[in-house]
Amino acid sequence: MLIAELEDQLVDAKNVERGRPFVCPGCHLPVRLRRGSRVQPYFAHLPGALCPLQNEAESQQHVQGKRQLMTFFAAWGQPELERILPKIQQRADVWLVRKQPIALEFQCSPISRAEVASRTAGYRQLGVYPMWLLGKRYAKQRLTWRTLDRFASWLPGWGLCLLFWDVETCLLRVDHHLCQVATGQFSWGTSYLRDVTDLQSRSGVYLATPRPNLLAFRRQLTADLQRESAGLRDVQEAVYLSGHHLAGFPEQLATMAVTPPGFGKGLLLWRVVMTAWLFQTKQFDEQEVHRLSRAALILIGGQLQAVRFNVAPALQRAETTLLQDWVRLGKLERRSQGWQVVGQPQWTADLAAYLVRSAHGSRRGSKW
């Protein structure tokens, strides 16, 4: 904490000396000034203090980063350190005074999804735009849904983004146009900015994604099934019950489309499951498509809602595209009450699929 209260006035830790009766502006409990030759000045609660506004331990990265961000974002509005928001019991690391205020949250330590969602919702309740910037710990990690789910948000010109602040270089790293290719891998571009005005005057370059390698994808599916990879056996079970093998999906399902993160093991696998399910019946309506679509998304490990973005619109587009593809290929016909199945997609009975069936059958005496 960089700001404390002294005799009813807010004071900055860098401008005061020890020995004064400092109190926390949020809970009004005593705080102690800490400083040293290698430590930037900050205030700390006394041991055992229960302050509702304490969020994360004040690492030196966090202390230093907040001051740097205050300078970096000054062009966007008058900056204030650690603005207290009593109505929602929160304290913004940096507050930018403007028509729509911006709260900068510099996150250096682990934090639960529930806490991120709660703090984000609190800012939205006040009409404040929350901007999460991640520290060194997150910058070094491999990108996963866990991070995207908590912190990714949309920025004009940059698409879906993650923002990272580097205390050592004072650079803003923007991982932009975050998306998921059809075979499930995440894709994005990365830009480094030295001036906040670049965030508005520039836009990130979108990286085109290559066409999926179907043979490699089939082989990977087969290998994963042989290893009994987590979650994939359930997908294979669902497809098998419609009379097919997962690795033998129709080639027409290949797509270069990308989706927002949230499609679990990827759009292609979702299209495979949906095709297996839809063509089990003679006809189906829009309500049934929506029901199966969400069930397929869950089956492949997907999520409809992140803290800051929604996957549902992309899922609806995927439904529309899949149906249009099979209509174009002459396997479905649009009717007034929905769709009529007029042909069956051709599934591939390849050697890999046969080997998987044989391996499971001999080992378990099962239906494989």
TrEMBL record:
> Which is a Pfam family this sequence falls into?
CoiA_nuc
What InterPro entries does the annotation carry? CoiA-like_N, CoiA_nuc
**Superkingdom as given in the UniProt entry:** Bacteria
| Name of the featured protein | Competence protein CoiA
Q: Where is the Competence protein CoiA nuclease-like domain?
A: 58-151
Q: Which residues form a coiled coil?
A: none
Q: List residues of the Competence protein CoiA-like N-terminal domain.
A: 14-53
What does UniProt list as this organism's lineage? Bacteria, Bacillati, Bacillota, Bacilli, Lactobacillales
